[in-house]
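Tokens as discussed.
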């Protein structure tokens, strides 16, 4: 990459690079991002070469380059960056470098065959982050410089990795330098780091960014370039004409000077009129004409090289061109002499502009045939359908069933390494082939499955088309419907999910498939924020599930749904726990019902754990959710799935009263969710729980900031939120002193929940909070609400529910009765695992009886919980009690 000519008017750019390298190598252990942009030929590659030379003795340098014809090859740029470094290690040491990420990330780099479930693309990116971080740490005193040229032509998977990796460079001794053409990058609409990083200086969690736009050379610099090539005797009019012809573009100026030298053109004013003709031969049709003058063989060999794109194998180019090795060597020599290619084996075009011009000069039919031959040659070499897929994508549709089969195989291979977008391209292309009519529905089903983790809306489109197309057998129809419902639910279309399942169930014969559809129908009906007949659905679910023993996964799924529904309704907690026990095998999800099993989905084990969390079985809940984190990490599902697992652990810690720990897990859940997208279901759950946790800690202003950042409020999503979102928002409004708004929100929550028979006051504490809000303005209604809350809590029977209800009822009783109720509340909450609620009840009890000892115990409990607000209030009450004694 080192430039072969001096750099003109690049002092500012080189100074920026020198400053970035000094910062990197100065022991600050903080990386950064240096971005150069400019039009084709402006000198980006030469500048990167000079930066590489500057860093050679101070850094370890890895470099890569995008290519116009290889943008569809997943991880192409990442492989260029990492493979040379990893090739230095023996296989066992390479595996150790990856650690637990080997099965997830190594296949993306071509270092291992895929194994295990399809990885989440975010998990692959996290694995690559880990490997680069490990490699950087092994470089000892030499920091790492990553150079990416022609980033506008980097493949999407590499761009996505770079986007995430560059955001955390402030943690690593790594400098990333990249160059791109701005318009081409904008045209690709790449989700790319530069668009999301601050303009300069960096902020917390982001690297320092230096962004430099390269400009064309001035007439003075162009004159210096001309005289360096043609001699100091080149006169001013000649030099001025070179600048006018090339527009100050360094590449075109260098090429024009070289051609003038080849023609032995005197660099004087009399020759200036010939420069425009010479300049035209350096690009476009002029370049093509110059290539044709080299002879038919050289022209055909250049075409073959252009089809192959980058890192061009001379042997493979000879095969495509239909010539012998000797002929290929002769063509290579002629193309090198003409400054069209460089290197020997592999070859590269001297400049991307030349590669583009040559590729576009190939007659379309010839180009298509050459891509087909390239795909055949790559497959014959045993490199696999995925390696051949970029050529398969260019083959003309011609009712070729072998092409369909190859593209489907390529899609499977892309999915297996975490490249669903590459798989989608292959399957879309296979649909155009076209496939046989009987295969079309299956191909649409495969296309829907390919986009399940990355694009629910696209998945819905393809799976609906698959179900509307004849050709799916019953097993695939059931699976397609189940996946369609899952995609609809994650696209905030729960009602449509339930309707799709009901329609398919109505035409499915009795058996395990029907039970699967029925279970999924109950799931997505029950998860809706609103429904027409909640009690009717609950009754149907009870009739279907209460008698089951959990003998197979269909029965276990129905028992899980029954347990979750019963918990929300506030049925006897022991009965609820019994349903959970029947839904598990030896206390764990059965094979096929685990966190990463695709047949049933992660929702079922999550529902078991959530049910445990709200029935005071917190050890069991925490064990299940810890297993979820491990399962998702092992499988590389580190997007929304891992975010949800952290959120669930946050729920467990919130229920235990470990508020600081809960906050940590919930913030991590939001961080992971933010990487996966915006407005996801997990955003609502994590935000709701975090707001509730911050309120318990006494940090109302922070809770408001979180609520506003994530638009926590109406309109609510179509799916229910964990816990009930309007209840938590009502609690936030109360903490802010916005009582009238809080009353309206809590009344609305009750109006939605009561008709559905959902009376669990721990999940949805609207009645207790509303009673407190109405205590002064409508004490009779408030006392009635509190009494009803107690009735429902005693029916449910958990210590947390009863203790919280007694604490609420105590607000409305005479002093002596209130003290007795609060003492009972303390007893129940001490027996539960809800340490924060225990501290709150003990504080209220100690305040009621003016007991310094009880309030001191409450303060100690609150401090241990991380409830700073409650601890502060307790300290104030203690001081008041002391002063009155």
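Sequence:
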């Amino acid at each position: 990459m080192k430039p072969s000519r001096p750099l003109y008017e690049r002092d500012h750019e080189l100074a920026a690079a020198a400053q970035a390298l000094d910062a990197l190598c100065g022991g600050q252990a903080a990386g950064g991002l240096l971005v150069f942009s400019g039009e084709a030929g402006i000198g980006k590659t030469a500048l990167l070469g000079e930066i590489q030379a500057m860093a050679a003795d101070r850094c370890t340098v890895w470099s890569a380059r995008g290519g116009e014809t290889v943008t569809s090859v997943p991880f192409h740029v990442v492989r260029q960056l990492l493979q040379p470094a990893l090739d230095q290690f023996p296989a066992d040491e390479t595996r150790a470098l990856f650690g637990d990420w080997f099965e997830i990330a190594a296949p993306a780099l071509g270092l291992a065959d895929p194994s295990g479930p399809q990885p989440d693309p975010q998990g692959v990116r996290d694995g690559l982050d880990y490997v680069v971080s490990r490699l950087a740490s092994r470089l000892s005193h030499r920091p790492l410089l990553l150079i990416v040229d022609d980033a506008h032509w980097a493949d999407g998977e590499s761009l996505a990795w770079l986007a995430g990796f560059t955001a955390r460079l402030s943690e690593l001794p790594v400098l990333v330098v990249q160059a791109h053409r701005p318009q081409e990058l904008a045209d690709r609409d790449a989700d790319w780091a530069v668009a999301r990083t601050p303009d300069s200086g960096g902020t917390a969690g982001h690297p320092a960014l230096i962004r430099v736009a390269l400009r064309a050379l001035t007439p003075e610099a162009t004159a210096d370039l001309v005289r360096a090539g043609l001699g100091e005797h080149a006169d001013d009019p000649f030099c001025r004409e070179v600048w006018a012809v090339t527009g100050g573009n360094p590449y075109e100026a260098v090429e024009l000077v070289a051609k003038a030298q080849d023609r032995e053109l005197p660099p004087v004013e009399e020759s200036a009129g010939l420069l425009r003709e010479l300049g035209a031969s350096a690009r476009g049709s002029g370049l093509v004409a110059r290539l044709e003058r080299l002879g038919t063989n050289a022209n055909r060999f250049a075409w073959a090289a252009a089809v192959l794109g980058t890192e061009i194998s001379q042997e493979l180019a000879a095969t495509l061109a239909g010539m012998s090795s000797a002929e290929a060597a002769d063509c290579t020599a002629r193309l090198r002499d003409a400054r069209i290619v460089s290197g020997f084996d592999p070859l590269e075009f001297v400049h991307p502009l030349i590669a583009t011009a040559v590729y576009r000069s190939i007659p379309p039919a010839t180009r298509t045939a050459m891509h087909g031959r390239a795909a055949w040659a790559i497959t014959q070499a045993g490199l696999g359908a995925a390696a051949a897929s970029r050529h398969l994508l260019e083959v003309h549709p011609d009712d070729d069933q072998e092409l369909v089969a190859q593209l489907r195989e390529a899609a499977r291979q892309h999915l297996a390494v975490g490249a669903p977008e590459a798989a989608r391209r292959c399957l879309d292309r296979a649909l155009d082939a076209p496939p046989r009519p009987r295969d079309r529905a299956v191909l649409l089903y495969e296309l829907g499955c390919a986009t399940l983790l990355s694009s629910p809306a696209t998945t819905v489109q393809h799976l609906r088309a698959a179900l509307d197309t004849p050709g799916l057998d019953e097993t695939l129809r059931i699976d397609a419907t189940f996946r369609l419902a899952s995609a609809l639910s994650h696209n905030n279309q729960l009602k449509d999910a339930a309707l799709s399942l009901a329609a398919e169930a109505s035409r499915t014969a009795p058996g395990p498939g029907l039970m699967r559809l029925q279970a999924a129908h109950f799931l997505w009906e029950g998860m809706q924020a609103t429904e027409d007949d909640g009690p009717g659905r609950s009754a149907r679910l009870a009739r279907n599930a209460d008698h089951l023993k959990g003998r197979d996964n269909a029965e276990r799924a129905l028992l899980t749904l029954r347990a979750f529904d019963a918990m929300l309704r506030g049925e006897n907690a022991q009965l609820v726990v019994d349903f959970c026990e029947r839904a598990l095998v030896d206390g764990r999800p059965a094979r096929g019902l685990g966190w990463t099993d695709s047949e049933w989905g992660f929702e079922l084990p999550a529902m078991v754990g959530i049910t445990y969390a709200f029935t005071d079985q917190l050890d069991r809940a925490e064990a299940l959710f810890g297993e979820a984190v491990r399962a998702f990490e092992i499988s590389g599902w580190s997007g929304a799935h891992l975010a949800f697992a952290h959120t669930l652990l946050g729920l467990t810690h919130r229920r235990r009263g470990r508020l600081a720990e809960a906050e940590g897990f919930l913030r991590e859940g939001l961080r992971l969710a933010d990487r996966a997208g915006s407005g996801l279901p997990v955003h609502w759950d994590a935000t709701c729980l975090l707001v509730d946790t911050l309120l318990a800690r006494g940090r109302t202003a922070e809770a408001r900031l979180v609520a506003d950042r994530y638009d926590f409020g109406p309109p609510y999503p179509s799916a229910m939120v964990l816990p009930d979102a309007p209840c938590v928002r009502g609690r936030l409004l109360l903490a802010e002193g916005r009582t009238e708004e809080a009353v309206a929100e809590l009344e609305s929550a009750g109006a939605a929940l009561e008709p559905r028979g959902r009376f669990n006051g721990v999940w949805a504490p609207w009645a207790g909070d509303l009673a407190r809000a109405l205590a002064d303005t409508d004490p009779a209604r408030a006392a009635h609400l509190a009494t009803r809350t107690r009735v429902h809590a005693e029916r449910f029977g958990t210590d947390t529910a009863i203790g919280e209800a007694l604490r609420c009822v105590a607000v409305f009783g005479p002093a002596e009765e209130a003290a007795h109720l609060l003492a009972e509340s303390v007893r129940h909450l001490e027996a539960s695992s809800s340490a924060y609620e225990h501290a709150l009840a003990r504080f209220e009890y100690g305040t009621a009886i003016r007991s310094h000892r009880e309030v001191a115990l409450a303060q100690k409990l609150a401090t241990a919980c991380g409830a700073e607000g409650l601890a502060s209030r307790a300290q104030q009450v203690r001081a008041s009690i002391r002063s009155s004694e």
